TrEMBL record:
GO terms for biological process: regulation of nitrogen utilization. This is Bifunctional uridylyltransferase/uridylyl-removing enzyme. It comes from the Bacteria. Modifies, by uridylylation and deuridylylation, the PII regulatory proteins (GlnB and homologs), in response to the nitrogen status of the cell that GlnD senses through the glutamine level. Under low glutamine levels, catalyzes the conversion of the PII proteins and UTP to PII-UMP and PPi, while under higher glutamine levels, GlnD hydrolyzes PII-UMP to PII and UMP (deuridylylation). Thus, controls uridylylation state and activity of the PII proteins, and plays an important role in the regulation of nitrogen metabolism. Residues 491-613 form the HD domain. Keywords: Hydrolase, Magnesium, Multifunctional enzyme, Nucleotidyltransferase, Repeat, Transferase.
Amino acid sequence: MKTDAALPAALGSDALCTAEEAALKSRLMPGGTPVARDTALLLLRSELGGVQARVQRAFEARELLGLAAARQLSAHMDALILSIHAYALATIPRGFRDKPEPFALIATGGYGRSVLAPYSDIDLLFLSPSSPGTRTTRVVEFMLYLLWDLGLKVGHATRSVKDCLAHARKDLTIQTALVDGRFLGGDEPTWTKFNTEFAKMRAKDGLGPFLTGKRAERAARHARYGETPFMVEPHLKEGRGGLRDLQTLYWLSRHAFNTCGLHELVGENSPGGGLLTEGEARAFRRAWDFLWTIRFHLHYVTGRAEERMTFDLQPVLAARMGYTRHGPQDGAERFMKHLFLTSREVLRLTRVLEPALERAALGPPARRREGDANLQKEGLALADGKLVAAPPDRDFAQEPILMLRIMRAARDRALDIHPLAIRALIRQSRKVEQLRGEEEANAIFLDLLTGKDSPKWLGLMNETGFLSRFMPDWARIVGLMQFDTYHVFTVDEHTIQAIGVLQQLEAHQLDQIAPVASELIGQLQSRRALYVATLLHDIAKGRGGDHSELGARLAQEICPKLGMSPEETETVSWLVLHHLLISQTAFRRDIEDPKTVLDIADIIQSPERLRLLLVLTVCDMRAVGPKVWNGWKATLLREVYWRVSEVLAGGLTVPERDVRVARAKEAAAEQLTMSAWSQKDLDHFLSLGYSGYWLSFDAETHARHASIVREAEAEKAPLTVRSAVLRSRAVTEITVYALDHPGLFSRISGALAVAGATIVDARIHTLTNSMALDTFWVQDSSGGPFDQPHRLAKLSVLIEQALNGKLKLTQEIRKVRREPARLRAVTVPPRVVVDNHASNTHTVIEVNGRDRPGLLHDVTAAISRHGFQIASAHITTYGVRAVDVFYVKDNFGLKVENERKLGPLRSSLLEALTPPEMVEV
């Protein structure tokens, strides 16, 4: 690839600008006489289109990287704007009484830095020595209208030197734009005067106020766009570790030393005395070029000033930049990992350069160092009240263990680590390799992992590169994303978030959200093993194969190196192997089926492991993203825990099923007796349900069902629909009581989809009177209860219309199939698994496919067409992936094991899972 050192015709940017400007001026003003405005506009449009097309062709042909293309586009724009400036001056006559009014034409903002993205704003300052007069105003307006008519977005200001200085002092944004100021044309003495005064103002104010303001601005920006750079849909420009963070370093160095680039800070003779090493300067140039290249592709692909890396754009950008599948990772994942590692490099450069700039501009470090005897014994000291390695003979390069000691001391003493010490952590990260397997290092690392504020210290270790050097397998998951809409963070950031949830549980901050896990956390005997298992639970992602199995083997290798005992190693390995067991059981299996509970109990075997596994599951789920955890999922996890706990305590065996049914009937009878039910009505209701029904609900739900049944029988109603908002579970329960017939479940599912309800679970029961009692738990699109009265009323009407045939489900579902365009790129291959071992009484069918409104209707309709009866459905979504599990029997009430019946069913289900055309929004 060529850079800006190899522009066409061997011209640099200045020469290119001059040649183009001269040619364009001769066409706009042949013989010195300006052409008509309409003619000029046509010429300028042709020139602008040609310029943009040439840069795009060169860039997409990989003749230019992003930064070189940005500079070349800026140079072309210089020629265009200077030609417009000359044309405006020639076109607008000076009146008889007009005094000469020189003004300077200044480029500011990104354009002032001589870089321009294809659809970025062009920021211009019209600078006059004093208040602009009539002709100046007319020339400025003439230029602006021409630029606007060309379709350019122009940010502009017309000010005097005095006003500019006043605004710069009051407004940080204006001051920043002026720091980027670059003279284009016009009256250069005016610009020189301003520049001199502006430099004096900055020198008088010092870097301090500007630095404080930029830090506050950056903090607000990060709060808006994400405190971590490891978001799977990052904002390229404003996000943490993005272009704006790099620009902030440029602004600080320019404000402090009037440099034109960070390369000027390399070497002992540079401003500040060599604030950057040559390697750091190269890293800066690589990051700057890589981010600018992505930005150009983003603009060209979208045709607008788009800066957000949405899912639909990531595969396109990856392909344009030459990323292809490599092993288990596809091109988009490899491309995004490169981006995340670059963002981390930007964070590290900020940690290195910013404190050095501050010190160089504001004065040398405080010479007074202090610390007590214990601190000195650790090889540490205080500078400005912050921790550093004790001078002059203690440093991280000679004693890498000081890197861990300084973090432990900072935590224990509630002190900050000095920015210069953090810079040393980054620069000496290679020395961390010497600490592997070292006893003191292991002890301090595990102490930091399991102690107060561990996510903070893990985040620092990850950002500085310490963690990847100390634990090489960690490096494989840094910046690793999964191309789906379920996970919000990269794998390394998700893991650190999970450690944070574990600490929240221990601090009783989640007592209302996860009460069982919060109670169990204090009963654990293997606390250290739990922390390490949380750290390692996803360590094998991105390697291909089952990451749980691979991770368990890695844990057996890593734990002894961390100084853990054989017993702890076994526990960690087991937890990593089975860390998905409880969630998959809760969301994909019928926990009322005794075999389900007995199978999981047989794997877990001990109450301590059950407690550990539940806590790890809660941490893993809550760390995925803010919308994953809800009250319904919490309820299901609790149910699994209590059922398995009962088995491990010896309280449940298969023969006891009848006992549990009898207890459920007794509890329901007690509830109904309190409501003054007669014995006759009570006996009638208790005779209606088969064993599966009594084991599927609690007594309160049985009582609700009893009321529905009695009311329907009294009114001889063929259909009854009732809803109950269960806020503690974050769901709305929809109960349908109707005459059973094939396809009933499918029709109800379709009506719920048309109503906009999301089904999270379902139970289907046929009673002894041949009536169906189907129960659905639904949520709205935000993951809360479907509770708006008018929507519930409409839902009941839609169910009735669907069952009597008045509602054309296929057509209506097609109308509600809407999907954000950014999600279309995420593919979910359809998959059907038939399992005749998970249950003794039912065939279990698991379908995986892309979620959409009406998916459950399509799938269950296919099951019904083949003559299978659905006993229960378990609905789970992971972003755009739906994983639905059905317990079915044939018409004779038996499991389906004949492959001649299962084969056609698989084909129909795969067809139902194939996404129809979706409407983009």
